[in-house]
Amino acid sequence: MSLEAQPKTPKEVEELPQVTIRFAGDSGDGMQLTGTQFTNASAIFGNDVSTMADFPAEIRAPAGTVYGVSGFQLQFSSSAIYTPGDVVDCLVAMNPAALKVNLAELKHGGVIILNEDGFTEQTLKLAGMDRNPIKDGSLGKYTVHSIPMTQSTLRACEEVGLTGKEAGRCKNFYALGVVCWLYSRPLEPILDFIEMKFKDREQLREANKRVLRAGYYFGETAELFTRVFRVRKAHLPPGVYREVHGNEALAIGLIAAGQLANKPIFYGSYPITPASDILHELARHKQFGVKTFQAEDEIAAICAALGASYGGALGVTASSGPGIALKAEALGLAVMVELPLVVINVQRGGPSTGLPTKVEQADLFQAVLGRNGECPLPVLAARSPSDCFEVALEATRIAVKFMTPVMVLSDGFIANSAEPWCFPNTGDLDPIEIEHTDEPNGENGRFLSYKRDEWLARPWALPGTPGLTHRIGGLEKQDVTGNVSYDPENHQRMVNLRQAKVDKVAEFVAEQEIMNDPDGTAEMLVVGWGSTYGAIRESARRLLRKGVRVAHVHLRHLNPFPRNLGAIFEKYRDRPVLVPEMNKGQLATLLRSKYLVDTQHLEKVQGRPFTTVEIMDAAEELLAAKGAKK
Amino acid sequence: MSVTEQKREYTVKDFGSDQDVRWCPGCGDYSILSAVKKVLAEAGVPPEQYVFISGIGCSSRFPYYMSTYGIHSIHGRAMAVATGLKVARPDLHTFVITGDGDALSIGGNHTIHTLRRNVDITILLFNNQIYGLTKGQYSPTSPFGKKTKSTPMGSLDQPIAPMAIALAAEATFMARTIDMHPKHLMATVKRAMEHKGTSFVEIYQNCNIFNDGALAYAQDRKVRAENVIELEQGKPLLFGKDMNKGIVSEKGHLKAVRIGEDGITEDDVLVHDEEDSESYHAMLTRMRYPELPEPIGVFRAIERPTYEDLVNGQIERVIERKGKGDLQKLIVGRSTWEVHEDEAEAGKG
Known about the structure:
The complex is a heterodimer of chains A (about 625) and B (about 350).
Chain A: E1 12-15, E2 18-26, H1 31-45, E3 48-54, E4 69-77, E5 88-93, H2 96-102, E6 106-115, H3 121-126, E7 143-147, H4 149-156, H5 164-168, H6 171-182, H7 188-197, H8 202-221, E8 227-230, E9 239-245, H9 246-261, E10 265-269, H10 276-283, E11 291-294, H11 298-310, E12 314-319, H12 321-337, E13 341-347, H13 364-369, E14 379-381, H14 387-402, E15 405-411, H15 412-416, E16 418-421, E17 471-473, H16 488-508, E18 524-529, H17 533-545, E19 550-555, E20 557-559, H18 565-571, E21 577-581, H19 586-595, E22 599-603, H20 612-629
Parallel strand pairs in A: 1-8, 2-5, 5-6, 6-7, 10-11, 10-12, 12-13, 13-15, 14-15, 18-19, 18-21, 21-22
Antiparallel strand pairs in A: 2-4, 3-4, 9-16, 14-20
Helix pairs in contact in A: 1-6, 1-7, 4-8, 6-8, 7-8, 9-10, 9-14, 11-12, 17-20
Chain B: H1 29-43, E1 50-54, E2 69-72, H2 78-88, E3 93-99, H3 100-106, H4 108-117, E4 122-127, E5 130-131, E6 137-138, H5 162-168, E7 173-178, H6 182-194, E8 199-204, H7 216-219, H8 221-227, E9 228-230, E10 238-239, E11 245-250, E12 253-258, H9 278-285, E13 294-301, H10 307-322, H11 327-332, E14 336-339
Parallel strand pairs in B: 1-2, 1-3, 3-4, 4-8, 7-8, 9-13
Antiparallel strand pairs in B: 5-6, 7-13, 10-11, 11-12
């Protein structure tokens, strides 16, 4: 096939408001890269985008098996979107296993693009399929495009001089080329990426470019496709955008916090899925004075961060649920010694090792309650990839203002998802003011290490400062002096003070806003936290189109709750309150115990985010039940 | 340490806190506290330049009794806390006070990794072969068969040799000393403090309540000379009241001999070298009473860059090459696109 071939037939162009595509193949097939590049091209084109990575815990499970299927889903749209899409419009499957695992989520009449060469007797057997679905008519209700991608890829890079194996690995770019053509995407951003990625490897650079173009021109030339699709630019608020992933935004947020506080970040961490990317990202930015420390274990990671905080750095540690469990004792120490510390939990499916690469929100209790003794600390949750930036900044502000460890909750969905980010100007970000005591604060030149300020924070006196030497530790402290004390009354007082300090954070942070209900007349209230934001927001919008008005409260502050949250529940007193969570109802339980509000919880613990429809259905059922009661 | 800090004379009193010391009367910890304060007073560095970090156990109460900065942290984790502090603040003199349970059992992992990184801190490990604070269970250094509250029929665990572990963990400085040998104790702590890198000091310490006399063979002045060898750089491995016994290497094994017997002269005796090969240092770590006298003093002192210097060096090199980080550039990233006013309709928030 000539690359210069002209289209044989003019194709029909169909306008679509939004499209959801899923790329699926073996974990070694490069599906994550393919999806990321398609996302990037769409974002630069001007669509709103939302993505979801879905990959196995095994790095390379046996090729061709259903265990090894890696998927990347994205929705791109001509209007604002908040989720990676409920149902898939187009499925790209590189082998039978990928087709088998993902077919259920493809909509009726959806498009399937298959690598025909991936469907051999052997791979069909590995996927547990008796017959070849390409030939047996079982895919009749879909529009199937079966393309010999491997063969075409090998042909496209014949003259480049790669081995057959190396050339074969480029087939993901062939698939990408086909999909780019089908959805009228520009190739330039992807070609730029190839140029950069294979800067020093001429053959691979050339091969991937040729293969990408070959896929694109195949679409244009082949009789297979009768029409192409177009998704216009989205109407986003004006501004300059970039694409950002959750873990990336957390890392940038931490670096920004260090810069705004004029302090080095000390990041102690032990590798764990899905938090490791934060470490990788931070380790690349040493020019900001960031010190990354890959510790021998989770405990050393948090202890070193705490030691750094004692010395005056901004100590940060991150992990996922199992690692946070290991850090619990040191978190208690941080609460006791009252030093600033930011602790990030990129949640995954649990308990134990659970579902390492899948999403869940089941560590809320762990964050709020999971330590020995009365051990309160502020807990914040990010609601989207770009929100991770804001949350990292706010967590740092709270940590240094209140001299306390702060827990930040993200999750495996946000961590690996991307969205457009209308990023801030650094000049518009408030500095983080930190005051280190340098004079004794007691009588006769004594330093009182637990004498509190108006926010109940104790002074942050740095070692090396003359006249302020003091000892801190895990034993109960005497109020004001900080000396060891086993006095019963003093213990009660200190427990109360530590709680009161954390409660005071509610006075420091913004009030809770209510979305989607400007006049307060919504029929019900949906309360969420973390990464369910997109699905709830989208549900509320769609319900509104159906004439159902649903108010949406999305909590960033989970401990303490926003100071006006009680008033919000009071306001919606006679209306149903739905709390969708990717757990067994942890926020719902906390809200019930604190506000005596009759929350209804909607749970999902399947390692996958909510779909919009699931939340819409639950909301409508709840309203119907209420109507029936009347 | 701040170079602008004026040197002045300090006394032991300058390093003691106002807190009552709560160790049992007669505990070996008292003499170690006293020795450390004396060494610091002589060093001429003000108390605020020191940080003492401990874990949990009797010895770990140490920081409360010093007038320096300090953290009484959690069980086994003092070295991790110290590592973070030292990387953040290389200017501070950082000590870790730990025990056999704290450093070799619950915190064994941190001991290994701190040593291999060579963080410039001084570790004082009080080894009394027993858990004192929890009232008398066997520890990782208790001898096999030791009868304690948790092992009424005798311990079934083989004891571990702290010095052998330190060597295996790539220690750059390792020494052993004794609570009841103050002169040696002070000299050893001083050497450890001066070492650039992790210095690991095992201190034989008597728990007179739960394990009294377990280390008497080394502590008791009446028998010490026969049971320990005081290592000195460049000096032969001689011991005994009359210094007439020595250590020779025979087919790769160490053996105690008497000078003048079987034609053995002082020239046959091994000469101590702190910078010698690992295999020689390994043999020293394996000398156990009663088969052989146990060495005290500096086993090994070699030079290797410290962890905090390497960490900060990488940062300096990157800044030299790329300049200081530009936050706006980082936030903007590689590629951006602009949405103009006229394109904007339905907002996203």
